[in-house]
Each structure stands twice: as structure tokens, then as C-alpha cells.
Amino acid sequence: MTEFSGSGASVVAIDNKIEQAMDLVKSHLMYAVREEVEVLKEQIKELIEKNSQLEQENNLLKTLASPEQLAQFQAQLQTGSPPATTQSQGTTQPPAQPASQGSGSTA
């Protein structure tokens, strides 16, 4: 009979160890989840701020654009063509060509 009480005690000890290990895993997971929630809250806050800035910029651009520009933009949206093509031709294309030629000759 002492063998049963000894093995019963070891089973209880093992159960206690398992429970402690599970509690430790649970606390680590909860800590990791809380950390991730804080990161996500910060990202949401930054995205809300960025969205607000973009909405203000959009409203400003709408007020500054001529009716013809707005109509052209709406037409581009409906056809699916990229709206930034007219801007990129005027500003980014000429500087980009000499820069690519310069980087090609140095490399």
C-alpha cells in the first residue's frame, strides 16, 4: 500500500509541475499579446493621423484644382489609367534620366 501512496504523491507532484508550467506559458503569452496590442494601437493611431492629413491635403487639392482638372481626374479614375502620369512627365522624368546615366557610368 505504501507504493500506491508514494506513486500517488509523485503523480500529484507531476500534475503540480505541469500546472505551473502551463501557468508560466499562459503568463508569457498574455505578456506577448499585450505587447502586440500596444504596437497595433500605436500603428492605428499613426494611420488615423496619416489618413486625416491625406484627407486635408485631398480637400485642399480639390479646392485648388480647376473644373477641367477635376473632370480629367474623374475620367482617369473611371478608365483605370494612372492619374500621376501628367505630373511625372513634367517633374520626375527629366531629372531621372541624367541620374540613371550618371549612376550607370560610375558603377
Cα Rg: 32 Å
Element order, helices and strands? HHHH
Mean pLDDT: 80
Q: Determine the fraction of residues in helical runs and give it as a percent range.
A: over 70%
Shape: rod-shaped
Count all strands and give the number.
0
Strand content: under 5%
What's the story with the biggest beta sheet?
none
The low-confidence runs, each spanning 5 or more residues with pLDDT under 50, are 85-107
Task: Tell me the span between the first and last alpha carbons.
Answer: 85 Å
Number of helices: 4
- Class by helix and strand content? mainly alpha
Write a concise synopsis of the structure shown.
With 107 residues, the chain is mostly helical.
Polypeptide structure, described:
The chain has 107 residues and is mainly α. The protein contains 4 helices and no strands. It starts with a helix and ends with a helix. The C terminus is likely disordered. Keywords: Coiled coil, Cytoplasm, Nucleus, Transcription, Transcription regulation. It is found in: Cytoplasm; Nucleus.
